[in-house]
Amino acid sequence: MKEINMKYGQGEMKALIEEKNLLEVIESNVLRQDRTEAEIISEALLNPIDSKRLKDIVHEDERVCIVISDITRSWQKPHEFLYKIIEELNLGGVKDENIIFLCAQGTHRKQTKEEHEILLGEELSKRFEVYDHDCFDEENLVYLGDTSYGTPVKVNKIAVEADHVVITGAIVYHFLVGWSGGKKSILPGISSFKTISANHSLSLNEGLGSGTRDRVCSGNIIENPVHEDMMQAAAMLKPSFMFNVVMGPDGDIAGAVAGNYIAAHEAGRKLVDSIDGVNIKKKADIVIASAGGYPKDINLYQSIKTLINAKEAVVDGGTIIVLSECSEGIGEVKDIKDMILNFDNMLDREKDLREHYTISKFVGYFFCETGEKYKLILVSEIDPVLLKNTKVIVTKTLEEALETAYKDKAENLTISIMPHGATTLPKLV
Question: Which ranges carry the Lactate racemase C-terminal domain (predicted)?
């Protein structure tokens, strides 16, 4: 019997699996790091990819807009690299008064002054103010044109009127666009709500009843229209420079890329793959995946990353068991609740999603769709009544979940375990 500890809320659950059934434990690759975070950041800025150094791109009296991620992405440790970017700009002759920080809120809420201080760090927050992007503020949005997908691109006026736009953030797997970072600072980061909705709706196939696109998934940009549409939007704004970090399993900065926003992002994607992309030779009948404990499993909304990654390791029609405590239920966002609670069939859900697309609705839809295509079992404290209109099964324990998985099936089914399901992406080779 193999015993594997998996995080659940503030504690753990033990997975007890017969050795003969265990196909593999899917973990991120071992990362050996001999550089400090400061050294990683400096090395990237001193050696930009397909670009001059930032100090050699800018000139005195030019206005520079630095686009940063919001407080929900503070794990990127922006306070560790933003002051290095300011140093580069100052070396290039740009004065503080000509540097503007614009926060890529997307559709997120405005932030507090204290949250701005967390993002910039103590020193920079005394020197600079942060402007929060508002996707509904039409007076401060500028229309740049339509993409080939018909997305009307409107972005924040501050960025459009700057001489240079510097985009920052982190590259991780993303369930719609393949990888985050890079162009996502622009769309959805500083775009209008209409632009964001039009872009994200490309995650659905054409025609009511056809559901989600298979190519719109983590770790893929090939024939991914959400990615391609974002790239076209970014090209309209033409950012001058990009700086993105890559995080290690311990939550520290494991790598960084800088320079041309296309070439540098490509290098960053390869780095993410080397850490969190795990090759598997075979898909399992059952996949047990932990969201990674609190706060990654604080609600159902946050568990979407785990579900999407686990889906890559299971056979068609197999069983997915997600360990997610969901101490705060489905989540505070109204749209995901509406999608899960207000419909009892997938066609009506899809119709509503197409007519009133939001990322939160998509998350709710994806959970419901996965429950239709697989046996989806949620080990959770969530009230089962909240999921009564879906085919998602809720259990309190992993033992009960496995009993449900084995029901009406032979007990010699293969099982794969994902202790860090939110960040580990299985790749079939």
Answer: 281-423
